[in-house]
């Protein structure tokens, strides 16, 4: 049967893909880590996610929305690790060690995470939507730190952690784990 003889043309089955939106968010993080924010496009995200280009605009109203979702996911993942480390610390000494491990192993342990962090910070300097992502991330970090440190100390320590991360990401001579340990211990004396 064809459309010409009055019969219905069978419609192509629509592919059910409930994980597509999540894959697009994950793909956006991959593209940002590999190409930077400036090299992140709908087309490149779709290619990495292995989905049709139109899926990016079907699931997200704009590239900005997709990037905000991706950075929200990234920040929430890092904040969750931070919270878990601080929750596992039995006392202040263990909390200090947890912070050292967080910086040395979690934040600085992956070039991908370093790039994502720096890309988010730079973009947030100009984009209020992404600045809100960093503000939420900082609030969660401070909340985790306040399990073991007063609010002023937690705020300063959070700033030190961010500074250590940025310094190591951008330096041609990054700090050693021993230097990071010393900096955190000095601040918390």
Could you explain the architecture of this structure?
There is one protein chain. With 189 residues, this protein is an all-alpha fold. 72% of the residues lie in helices and 0% in strands. The protein has helices at residues 20-35, 42-49, 54-59, 63-88, 92-107, 111-124, 128-145, 151-170, 177-188. The longest helix is centred in the middle third of the chain and has 26 residues, at 63-88. The model has no long low-confidence stretch (mean pLDDT 92).
In the predicted model, the low-confidence regions spanning at least 5 consecutive residues are none
Major sheet characteristics: none
Rg, nearest Å: 22 Å
Shape descriptor: elongated
Q: What percentage of residues falls in helices of 4 or more residues?
A: over 70%
Taken in chain order, the helices and strands follow as HHHHHHHHH
The pLDDT mean sits at 92
DSSP summary, beta strand count:
0
Pfam family, one: TetR_N
Protein name: TetR/AcrR family transcriptional regulator
Organism: Nonomuraea harbinensis
Keywords: DNA-binding, Transcription, Transcription regulation
């Amino acid at each position: 049967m064809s459309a010409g003889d009055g019969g219905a043309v069978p419609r192509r089955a629509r592919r059910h893909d409930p994980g597509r939106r999540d894959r697009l968010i994950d793909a956006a993080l991959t593209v940002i880590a590999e190409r930077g924010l400036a090299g992140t496009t709908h087309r490149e995200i779709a290619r990495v996610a292995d989905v049709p280009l139109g899926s990016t605009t079907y699931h997200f109203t704009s590239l900005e929305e997709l990037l905000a979702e991706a950075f929200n996911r990234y920040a929430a993942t890092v904040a969750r690790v931070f919270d878990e480390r601080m929750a596992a610390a039995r006392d202040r000494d263990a909390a200090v060690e947890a912070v050292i491990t967080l910086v040395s192993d979690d934040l600085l342990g992956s070039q991908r995470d370093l790039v994502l962090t720096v890309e988010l910070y730079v973009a947030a300097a100009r984009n209020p939507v992404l600045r809100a992502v960093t503000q939420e991330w900082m609030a969660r970090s401070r909340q985790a730190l306040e399990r073991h440190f007063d609010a002023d100390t937690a705020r300063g320590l959070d700033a030190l952690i961010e500074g250590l991360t940025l310094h190591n990401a951008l330096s041609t001579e990054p700090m050693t784990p021993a230097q990071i340990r010393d900096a955190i211990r000095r601040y918390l004396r």
